[in-house]
Design brief:
single chain, mainly beta, four-stranded antiparallel sheet, 2 helices
């Protein structure tokens, strides 16, 4: 998607006039069909949006997303053994493949993972023998005949119920959960360990990675993200704060402390600085839909790695290289530790990641060209076309360019999701959710 590419347009926005810390969105995730979109926030709430089923019109619209259900997933807790408060913030949400009419999703805060069942009910039973219409038990002596209860139509109700609670599996903060392609297991990763769980067993998990040293003073890196391979249930990858990726094969060893492949980019000694290790830390890693590539994000760049080539990335995209001269001030205000996510489109041909000033970036892998777009309230009218933005770093200044010194570092795009089969993206900007749809013809949608 080059600078001259046609911009996506806003399909729907969910904006709030005031910002509280609890309202800040902390994760966004489409389900496998793209009909449902779940967001989690720092207040422990999960909001599910459902796509309206309507025909694709002349404008290319194919349904908008409206609030489907809202529930409290996690509450603040306290670890009495360590005298530590446990935040209710939702770190990750992952949908399970749908097996029946109900939907299931996993949500986690720093310590506890929960499995939720989301189901609909549009009928209610009537004609109980032992209960009256109010649900109270009848006096058995007054029952003189038996009747068969019947189901009567009623207003649609969406029920969300907790089915499993997976607790006591992590000493450190959970940063990732990933559902395995076998549909029966999932992994959860914290700073030093990765555990594998069975969806039906809550009281125990199997530790598959443990990088905790015998002496914590010898600690040199932490786990930052982990994900299962989309097709091979025995493969998973995890990233570290040192900028490395480790591909592990559970067929080779039950405890995967020894990786199958190590992906690492050689460092240029001439460019090393105080900030080198901080900005090389990988904040997110995603397998491509094909399973052939890995997409990673560090502070300044997004990189694509080929599983068959471990000597370095095959593609590197500069997300905001203009911030390299600002690293000192970004270190002082802690922005240098922001954890940006990255996502693939459905055909693995375009990647997307976030930046500051409510900007997000898309890169076309075939041409290598990138486009900068902005999620902001002034363009939040439905079907408004997004204009491309440009950060001015020198040379001829165009109208509308934003100077590096004018960037707002409090407006950061950290969390996003791409529809699994169509050109629809969801962007979390602080406490606002933007849903954009590419302006394409229905016949070419998804290409």
């Amino acid at each position: 998607m080059g600078e001259d590419a046609e911009s996506p347009k806003i399909n729907h926005t969910f904006l709030r006039d005031y910002v509280t810390e609890a309202d800040v969105i902390s994760t966004v995730e489409f389900n496998q069909t793209g009909d449902l979109l779940a967001t989690g926030d720092k207040g422990g709430r999960v909001v599910i949006f459902q796509r309206e089923t309507e025909e694709v019109g002349e404008t290319g619209d194919s349904g908008e997303y409206n609030v489907y259900s809202t529930f409290q997933s996690h509450e603040p807790d306290f670890d009495y053994l360590k005298s530590l408060e446990i935040e209710e913030k939702i770190n990750k949400i992952r949908w399970l493949p749908q097996q029946n009419a109900a939907h299931f999703l996993l949500s986690t805060n720093d310590k506890t993972i929960k499995l939720w069942k989301v189901s609909e009910r549009d009928k209610r039973p009537e004609g109980y023998n032992l209960k009256d219409e109010e649900g109270r038990l009848k006096d058995i002596s007054t029952i003189t005949s038996l009747q068969v209860p019947v189901l009567k139509p009623t207003d649609l109700m969406v029920e969300v119920r907790p089915r499993r609670v997976f607790s006591n599996g992590h000493t450190y903060h959970v940063n990732s959960i990933s559902v395995n392609s076998d549909g029966e297991t999932y992994l959860s990763a914290d700073d030093l360990r990765i555990n594998m769980w069975h969806l039906g067993i809550t009281d125990r998990s199997f530790n598959i990675v443990d990088i905790k040293p015998a002496n914590m003073e010898d600690l040199t890196e932490v786990i930052t993200a982990a994900e299962f391979h989309p097709h091979h249930c025995h493969l998973f990858v995890y990233s570290s704060s040192k900028g490395t990726l480790r591909l592990c094969d559970m067929r080779a060893s039950a405890l995967c402390d020894r990786h199958t492949k190590l992906f690492e980019e050689p460092e240029d000694p001439g460019s090393r600085s105080f900030f080198s290790e901080i900005i090389s830390s990988v904040s997110d890693v995603k397998f491509s839909h094909s399973g052939r590539y890995l997409l990673t994000r560090d502070y300044l760049t997004a990189k694509v790695w080929d599983l068959n080539m471990d000597k370095g990335p095959v593609e590197t995209y500069q997300v905001h290289e203009y911030l390299r001269s600002k690293l000192c001030s970004l270190y002082e205000n802690d922005c240098i530790f922001d954890k940006f996510e990255c996502v693939w489109n459905s055909s693995d041909s375009v990647i997307m990641t976030g930046a500051y000033n409510s900007f997000f970036r898309m890169f076309d892998r075939e041409t290598g060209r990138g486009v900068t777009l902005e999620a902001w309230r002034e363009s939040s009218k439905p079907r408004a076309v997004l204009r491309t933005r440009r950060v001015y770093t020198g040379g001829k200044r165009r109208r509308g360019d934003v100077g590096v010194d004018s960037l707002d570092f409090t407006k950061k795009i950290l969390h996003m999701a791409w529809h699994p089969s169509e050109n629809i993206i969801a962007i979390a900007a602080t406490n606002n959710l933007y849903i954009f749809q590419d302006r394409v013809n229905p016949e070419t949608q998804g290409q």
